[in-house]
Write a structure and sequence with these properties.
283 residues, alpha/beta, Metallo-beta-lactamase, Chain A, seven-stranded mixed β-sheet, 10 helices
Length: 283
């Protein structure tokens, strides 16, 4: 049975309890990450996982609170590879392939770091001490732009995505549905209610839904791109999901969680959880 690790359950504003967005699904043979927000690599280790365990990264959109730790994950994972590991596969909306090249390509932002770790005598010694051999292989990331409707096949799981309403026309945002024999989970990403998300989430076992604010606190400008409590409840009800976890949380909704849950329960009859960082959910 897969395990969902809630790595990042907050917003772009850091607080002691939470910051940014990141999740990991631990399958028997590999780990799939969804988004890679602030400190996601460190939080991964706090959850008992290793960067080298991550085989796939599925990105919803390129807002910094969902993506800023991407270079850290890639570099840390590569630095601990000793040979024979598969390259990290990264799927997300354009221009993720271009961004990856600008970070790690021959003229990328981290080229000096990569050269030093391959060529300096001390770096070679560290690599050998970890069980690697020389010459050290260079970094390889298989990053691919994906379009809404794309289907991905992993080791015992599959994923498909749909475009949701968040920051158009400035960036594309994807919701992801991940399925395996006997289960499914949908990550709404940041979005307002939309038919594409309801269709993607139909009948899912779990919906991980952005929900920064109670409905009464959601300004009409913010309602163009994120959920309030009733929005999350209505999407969950219309998609007939079994249960829902609220994430992308502000302090307001956490402090008023009893009231927020009561609002949702009036619309959606399923189980609802308030996410905590490093929470483990058996799927």
């Amino acid at each position: 049975m897969p395990t969902l690790h809630m790595l990042g359950t907050g917003t772009p504003s850091p607080v002691r309890e939470r910051w940014g967005t990141a999740f990991a699904i631990e399958f028997p043979d590999e780990v799939v990450m969804i988004d890679c927000g602030p400190a996601a690599t460190w939080k991964l280790t706090q959850a008992g996982l290793r960067p080298i365990d991550v085989g796939w990264l599925l990105v919803t959109h390129l807002h910094s609170d969902h993506f800023v730790d991407y270079p850290c994950l890639v570099l840390t994972r590569w630095d601990h590879c000793v040979g024979g590991e598969m390259p990290l596969v990264v799927m997300g909306p354009a221009p993720i392939r271009e961004v990856t090249g600008k970070l790690f390509g021959p003229e990328g932002a981290f080229i000096d770091d990569l050269r030093a770790r391959c060529e300096h005598i001390a770096s070679k010694r560290v690599h050998l001490s970890r069980g690697g051999t020389l010459p050290r292989p260079g970094l390889e990331v298989r990053a691919q732009d994906v379009s809404p409707g794309a289907v991905i096949e992993g080791e015992g799981w599959s994923a498909r995505c749909a475009e949701v309403d968040h920051m158009q026309p400035y960036m594309t945002t994807l919701a992801w549905r991940i399925e395996w024999p006997g289960g499914s989970v949908v990550f709404s990403s940041d979005t307002r209610p939309c038919d594409a998300l309801v269709e993607l989430a139909e009948g899912a076992d779990l919906l991980v839904a952005n929900c920064p604010l109670r409905q009464g606190d959601l300004h009409e400008d913010l309602a163009t791109c994120i959920f309030g409590t009733l929005d999350a409840a209505q999407v969950a009800r219309d998609a007939a999901v079994e249960r829902m976890i609220l994430t992308h949380l502000t302090g307001n909704i956490v402090r008023e969680c009893d009231e927020a849950l009561a609002e949702i329960a009036a619309v959606f009859p399923g189980e609802v959880l308030i996410a905590e960082e490093l929470m483990r959910v058996e799927l």
